[in-house]
Design goal:
single chain; 0% strand; 11 helices; mainly alpha; 267 residues; globular
Length: 267
């Protein structure tokens, strides 16, 4: 792997951000809106319930973790789509750049953009609503790692979908986090789900993160074995997603689809 080529792709994303405030604003604007909205909802719930239960670390904490996952996934997908939107895709793969180098650059770009969103979330949650993520302890790091790994995997899968079916399939990408959120129990325990949904939940790494977070808030202990299993699943999905992207790319080259890549490409 040539690090200079990887750096070149990452720098391209940086220059795009630097020259376009419209690209920078979404990195923290939607995150800030979610934090403020859910922060005041949790405050309201604290005032109308008599149980004395604090909803801020449960609901707002879940929102922040879920938003972090979405930013990671969209960071990979958006970096890929930048080349699609600018019709630069053919130019990139006409160079000696390898698939591994290109995907690595997408991941690094996602790390940078998701870190911006994470910092904004932490600052807003702490200063406005008094939620400190340090209250979760060091277990927060494995939580973020599992979400990050699965976000990367899902972002690569979404890029594969667009590469295979063309830019017109972009609308399939953005709803994916919303579609899987009921299965991972962002706001409720998995035990509330029907049995058939729980089967799918056990295959999704974020479900182990949110179950562990609720256990901490309720004064319990996190199952390290289950969290490790979630991390192993996330790594497995990354490997499968990289295989999928490579297979789709070779299919596009072999069939000539990559040469006909345009906004009207659907097959």
């Amino acid at each position: 792997m040539n690090l200079n080529r990887v750096t070149a792709i990452v720098l391209r994303q940086f220059y795009l951000m630097r020259e376009s405030p419209a690209r920078v604003l979404p990195l923290f604007a939607w995150v800030a809106i979610d934090v403020v909205l859910w922060g005041f909802i949790t405050r309201y719930l604290n005032t109308v319930t008599l149980s004395g239960f604090n909803f801020i670390p449960t609901l707002l904490g879940a929102v922040l973790l879920w938003d972090f996952f979405i930013r990671v996934m969209q960071g990979v997908t958006t970096a890929f789509l930048e080349d699609v939107w600018s019709r630069n895709f053919l130019n990139i793969f006409a160079t000696p750049l390898s698939i591994a180098e290109y995907v690595s650059a997408l991941v690094i770009s996602s790390i940078a953009t998701s870190c911006v969103g994470l910092i904004v979330m932490l600052v807003l949650a702490r200063t406005v609503f008094g939620l400190s993520f340090f209250s979760y302890g060091l277990i927060l790091m494995p939580f973020l790692l599992v979400l990050f790994l699965f976000g990367i995997a899902l972002g690569i899968v979404c890029s594969s979908v667009v590469l295979r079916f063309g830019p017109a399939s972009e609308w399939l990408v953005w709803p994916i986090p919303a579609l899987i959120s009921p299965f991972v129990g962002v706001f409720y325990p998995l035990s509330t789900l029907p049995q058939w949904m729980q089967y799918f939940s056990h295959l999704l790494p974020p479900s182990y993160v949110f179950e562990g977070m609720r256990a901490i808030v309720l004064g319990g202990a996190v199952s390290e074995a289950l969290l490790l299993w979630g991390a192993c699943l996330a790594v497995l999905y990354i490997l499968l997603s990289c295989w999928l992207f490579t297979s789709v790319y070779h299919h596009a080259v072999r069939t000539g689809l990559i040469a006909r890549y345009s906004a009207e490409t659907l097959s």
